[in-house]
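Because showing beats explaining, we think one record worth quoting, sequence and backbone structure tokens together, and here it is:
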Amino acid sequence: MVEHAMTDPAGMFVIVAHQGYEFHAIDGCDLAAEDPAVWLISEGETVRPAWPSVNEWFRYWSPDIAEHRERLELMRETRPGRPLPGWARDIESP
């Protein structure tokens, strides 16, 4: 059994399940909170609050669009004529 400080693990809401060994979840007791902490649950490791809020979790996992635009520009310069990755259409300015 893994040690944890969750208050209501049976009622937790799992946001992400990654290949069955890592989960991001909100403690069941915090589901009504405005911006609850997100816990990291990894197989064989301690369960811990890894992000102080759902908003911080989204910020952490959101792509850095400016960095991706720079990478795209470099691809255009170094690989002229080659097809761009599928994600390019999602970040190009109209």
